[in-house]
Design goal:
Length: 257
């Protein structure tokens, strides 16, 4: 097994923070930890580098993280804030002189073939992105960058979303509940990443109280909250309310085994 780290490329919700046109205290904060790109993460091992999700801020995130080699992109689900940056993979494809491996469920693959039809046509125009699709499904592990990835399902309102256990790291985004059969993959992680959208309940995301309950039930050594909206509050003020072992993640944060 290789050394593993996870960088939070983005920790914001679908609108990001600040939100266009908003003048709330969070959106006008001068604290860089209150400035959140759309949620994505970068897993680095001694054997490779893999992105989890590829949203509209992907180009900016890759530049900030200094990425010039990427082995694959693993997708949790098909919503735009998680896939709409796939065209920006072209720059890495030109450098690496190969298509980018994309790991996703059958449902997500169908959406990609519709949304990025120009990349899957029989005669794509020169310079179009090139994707090498790998089908994954809950409960069936796969090998990537020297690690075993175990996908499992969580519920995002009415749709299933893939979460992942990679060694002792668990990554969950866009979840409103964790099915009982998935808890075996969540328990006793060293690092548990969970979405925590806001203070008030939401139909398709954990709110703060739920995220804290999930972290306690999971028994993780450390829990990191992500996919955060401006409605959650200021990073510093919310951080003071959290229990020991739970912290708000922020863009650029790196956690490692």
């Amino acid at each position: 097994m290789s050394a593993l780290s996870l960088e939070f490329l983005g920790t914001g919700t679908s609108q990001g923070v600040p939100v266009i046109g908003c003048s709330c205290p969070v959106c006008t904060s001068s604290n860089s930890k209150d400035q959140r790109l759309r949620t994505s993460a970068l897993v680095r091992t001694s054997s490779g580098c893999v992105a989890i999700d590829c949203g509209p801020d992907f180009r900016q995130q890759m530049l900030r993280a200094g990425v010039s080699q990427l082995d694959a992109v693993v997708l949790t689900h098909e919503h735009m804030d998680h896939v709409s940056g796939l065209d920006d993979l072209r720059a890495l494809q030109f450098l690496q002189k190969r298509p980018t491996a994309i790991y996703c469920s059958e449902r997500v693959e169908r959406r990609l073939r519709q949304q990025f039809a120009y990349a899957f046509s029989e005669k794509p125009y020169p310079g179009a992105p090139q994707f090498e699709l790998h089908r994954i499904e809950a409960g069936i592990p796969f090998e990537l960058a020297g690690e075993t990835w175990m996908p499992f399902e969580v519920e995002h309102g009415s749709i299933p979303v893939l979460a992942f256990r990679i060694g002792s790291l668990v990554y969950i985004t866009d979840a409103s509940s964790i099915p009982e059969e998935s808890w075996t993959y969540v328990q006793n992680a060293h690092h548990l990443v969970l979405n925590a959208l806001r203070i008030e309940p939401h139909y398709s995301h954990f709110h703060l109280e739920q995220a804290l309950e999930m972290a306690q039930k999971a028994g993780a050594r450390k829990a990191w909250l992500t996919h955060i909206s401006h409605h959650l509050g200021l990073h510093q003020e919310v951080g003071e309310l959290l229990v020991p072992g739970v912290q708000l993640a922020y863009d650029g944060l790196v956690v490692s085994e």
